[in-house]
């Protein structure tokens, strides 16, 4: 892969950078700016080289049209604070405002384009539509730098197609991530334990088939639990459930048994009346979730069980919070998993945390980042990397 140095003298050149600024927000307040900080080395290197830096990024999953709640305005403000220089936010992704904003940039100045997913062509499955958007983006720049590691598993216009149009290089964050993730998984020290959770259940269930050929133990927490419990014949009340995945999960359970891979499920669940911070809640057995209640965390016995399965690990990958950690009452499972992973690390395990929310959880819950071997900015991206899959946003840079 070409690096930024390979792009030559960048003074006065317009460089389009794809970053991953998909940060957790509470209204317009960024609750964890880890992904913004992670973008700084590349942006600073380009600004120091005198480039005119144009950043494109997404936030959330808008439906191909502008929506105020997905505006990158909070990110522009935070990025400006961290860089110590103004970051102009274009009012659109690729229209008149974007063109004017870029034209007004001086050497060593930076602008951010509005959420690229406001344009439906960004995520289109039709190659020609993505190529058209990539062509428009390319008209704003002389070179392209891919630095949004969290999104390199997406074949999207600003990640994949654009790299075929402009001279393209890999950014510092992507380089660092690839290096660390490779180190952990090319020949993992065993036991190799993977902890999965979070809410992007169907996105992440697919990786299990592959992990069953690599890991020694899989611990299942978060919203993923309920599809597993349903596959074992338990009712899950109003909890997050991917009904159409139940048969697939039954297949995983059977495969795991054949291969001698341990799948560890929670034995107790914290259930609430509603998805709300102050909802009344109780701990129930995992096979006794009442019909009208919703599971929002693994229970204390499960936290102990998970701990016992992590303590002797030599490689740990954790992706997806064990519960709705954003609400204090349902943060116990995630806190316990994070602590057990820190302790495994202190016992010599190489530990990786992946995912925007998992990495945010580590920081928001007050853990020292130094307690983990590598905190990846990628969730789905790091999982697909660990699976050994080809990531379109990286493959395209390898030419
Ligand atoms: N039982 C549950 N029910 C509903 N949501 C849950 C549950 N447990 C965890 N979550 C939510 O999962 C979200 C994170 O899931 P997600 O799959 O996006 O993980 P991630 O680490 O951010 O990975 P990525 O970077 O791929 O998005 C958190 O906001 C958390 O509240
Ligand atoms: O949060 C993430 O994992 C990345 O920003 C990618 O987002 P996506 O899953 O909506 O493509």
Automatic annotation (TrEMBL):
Its main location: cytoplasm. It comes from the Bacteria. It comes from Cellulomonas cellasea DSM 20118. PANTHER family: PHOSPHOGLYCERATE KINASE, PHOSPHOGLYCERATE KINASE 1, CHLOROPLASTIC-RELATED. Keywords: ATP-binding, Cytoplasm, Glycolysis, Kinase, Nucleotide-binding, Transferase. (2R)-3-phosphoglycerate binds at residues 35, 117, 154. Monomer. This is Phosphoglycerate kinase. One of its GO terms (biological process) is gluconeogenesis. Its EC number is 2.7.2.3. Gene3D superfamilies: Phosphoglycerate kinase, N-terminal domain. Transmembrane segments: none annotated.
